Amino acid sequence: MAGLSLGDVMHVRASQGRTPAPETSVIFIWLAGGPPHLDMYDMKPNAPEEYRGQFRPIRTNVPGIDVCELMPLHARCADKYALIRSISHTFSDHGGGSKRVMTGRIPATPTETVNDAPAVCTVVSRMREHIDIGLPNVISGADGGRTNVDTYAQGAAYLGRRYTPFMVGGDPSRPDFRVQNIGLDQEMATRLDDRYRLLDGVDELRRRMDNNRPMATMDALYQRAYSLMTSAEARLAFDLSREPAPVRERYGRHAWGQRALMARRLVESGCSFVTMVMENPHIPGTFYNWDTHAVNHDNFNDMRLRLPRYDQAVTALVEDLHARGLTEKVMLVVTGEFGRSPRISRSEGPQGLRLGREHWPQSMSVLVAGGGMRHGQIVGSTNALGTHPHDRLLTPNDLWATVYRHLGIDHHDTLPDQTGRPMHILPFGEAIRELT
Amino acid sequence: MTTHRALLVAALILGSTLSAQAQGLLPPDRPIGEVIDHYIDAKLAQAKVKPAPPAPDTTVVRRLFLDLNGRIPAGVEAKLAAKQPLDNKKLIAMLVASPGFARHNANEFDVMLRNSNADAPSLRPYLVEAFQENRPWDVMFRDLIGASETPSKTKPEAFVLKRLKDADALTRDVSSIFFGLNITCAQCHRHPEIKDLTQDYFFGMKAFFTSSYDFQGNLLERQYVKLGDFKDKKGDTHKVSMMFLSGTKVEMDTLPEKELFAAIQAEAKLIQEKTKAYAKSKELPPLPKFKARKRLADIALDEANREMFARSIVNRLWFRFYGHGLVMRVDQMHAENKASHAELLQWLARDLIAHKYDLKRLIAGLVSSRAYARSSEWQGTPPAKELFAVAPTRPLTPAQWGMSYHIANQPDIFKADDPIEVRQKKLADVEKGAGTFAFIEQPFDDFQVGIDEPLKLSNDEGVLKAMGSKLIPVLKKLPDMRQRIHEATWAVLSRPATAAEQTLFDSYLEERKDRPDEGLRQVFWALFNSPEFRFNH
Fold first, then answer.
1. I want to staple A14 with a disulfide (CB 3.0 to 4.6 A). Which of A227, B104, B114, B340 is the partner?
2. What three-state secondary structure class fits B5?
3. Beta bridge partners of A368
4. Which residue, among B448, B460, B463, would best test binding to A if mutated, counting the most A CBs under 10 Å from its CB?
5. Could you tell me the pTM of the whole model?
6. Which domains does chain A have, with CATH numbers?
């Protein structure tokens, strides 16, 4: 190995460990705060005024599927996605709702976002830990300052912290956007080489203890870290400047659009599960998340500003997955922790009357695409006022069972909890047959 | 309203009745370390395994500092200890007498008492106080479940209070932590591994907490409760009554259904009124004559049952120092899960009871054996863990890691003649800075580290900048490179540098002599990221 620095040696060692990329991946778009299904995917134009709201539905390119007039790009490609209108649960707090949806389990407590059971993304991380593509297998992107795994109930609970997603904070549409600790530039990499060369020299104890498992784990982890930090694959996968300008424009030159584009690049590079949070649109006049209570913000003013941006980013991703032939490999899921109350609430404040919608886990809408699923359809329905599922009663677990099926993970398998008790990956739920 | 009587039900299925068989044990007056080696050696001989040799003195010193004071020795302490042949007993006596002993045990017990329960509060202030005065474990148990006659300002009963919203988890945690038996599996059906552990045990234990409630932040008990029923898998209904894990039942004479209902209603109304008036009156609702949690403590600590309580803490502490329990898992201590060294466990439990649950004595005893001081190195496939033939490699806890990092960064922090108050203050200062490493994983049974840790340590600007910031100026005062390397290695790894390390660092620092600070920083980084620092080995 003469002529190679230790960094080179480690790099060779690290890339030798690479495995083929998996055949299936998931992109999970998280609409934190809870989007108003009656103003997006489940409109009720014939309901009384205090329910139907201020927007009108428009027809899409699939007869029978209507969406909100503020989402014309959705209307253009309804044959490329499916909507589920009959998922519901019972947790009406953001914390409880997030834990319920993210984990596929009934949380022990109805508030706060620290999971007592592993989030689905962490289960995927555990089940795919043998895969090494030079990138973390599970990645989550969110605004800077919102990258704690507990912010959106993405904790691994009893699986352990090593399975939590690799968090990418910040706005990828900004020119100064940088992913921390991955794919370093040359100067940083040189300094890193120095450190690792020295580290190898203080490694005598570990070498003498060749079959010591904790020490071997630690060593493997440092190799993995080194591999990530110097990974050419990672540098490429995160580098949005490699996309043609028209593509970046189509997704939208804003955090949501570029996050969606990054998700597509990451799954193309072999990531197994990419979560992208679309929470704050950062548009003056909008609330920081989808939580448009009357006391927070006027739901309708907010949606007028927010939905066009959402429409652009999500449909760009849907169309792109189709255009690039990724609809078998990649499954896209778009949801929040719950829907919003069909009945409109009112609040008199200093700025005058505000109209809002409250937390509503009793009904919600979920968009799915890809994953070899049948597109251009609606699964289930809500009643006339949109307050409860009318037929095909489903839970978040049925959605996850569909996701696990796509990933080739048997959700009847068990993983041990902290007391060694075998826990089913999902305690209940079956893949949604209309989709598969 | 109630008179009550305890019934001893059938055989004790969950632990063996030990006192009856105590005759065959080594005599009670033998030192704990000797007893440990007697039983461990016997089993090794039987298995024809030759244990690892004693660890080098520098390793044992580091191990004892980490285990008894929660940190590595400061450079001066490590070098001082190396000047003469190691006297384990003397060092152990010094370490258990130092203020770091209480603080470290408070950290360890705080984690143990949480039992990975996200709702569990930190009880550190109480634990520091309790370990400072060496409060016996049975007294601490009473404090923690709110069964003590004398309330403590540091509110140990928050252990129960903060768990009231999830009574199932409370039941699980009390049974697991104090009695070494996780009975969650018996909540919905018979325990799959212990055939006699029926749902009665789960609901029986839970019943001791049914009357507990949170009144304005105070843990109180109601006088009137209906214990209710539970359904088994077949759908048959069973009446709940208080029952300890050994099968000891508490039968309460209760009011007839109708009167009980009225009494419950009346009490609820009274509590509501007291709540409204509380801001002004500061008055608590009346306390019941029958105190269920106190009854639980009395039963658990009575002569027939107390061995379970003693065995659980012995096994948990054993696990902490030997990396593997005498019974594995530590929360599955039941008759069908045999101890690897049953007599040793029995002897240690008897000793703990005889010495009034003195944890300091037990801890000092556990680390005084030859088995504890063995080398952690092993050539070839290591022997079964339950033989304790080789010392374990244990990852540092976040608290140990943080403290050690700060001590390493300040090798001359302690002067040999520092009075105890000065030492205590310096230690508290170090502690303040030690809590900032959230990315270090708390180790549980199965060692896991997130990728975050090496990434942050390798590349986080803030972490890298802070690394060695206090050590480097100290090292730079030393005249030559050799001494600097020597000093840095003592500071971080608590031993002298090997010849190979001297050569490696020497040539590296020579290359970097245009930026000497940066060079030293990198050396410090390497020492600090070596597995030798990350583990108690």
1. A227
2. strand
3. A82, A333
4. B448
5. 0.80
6. 25-180+244-424 (3.40.720.10)
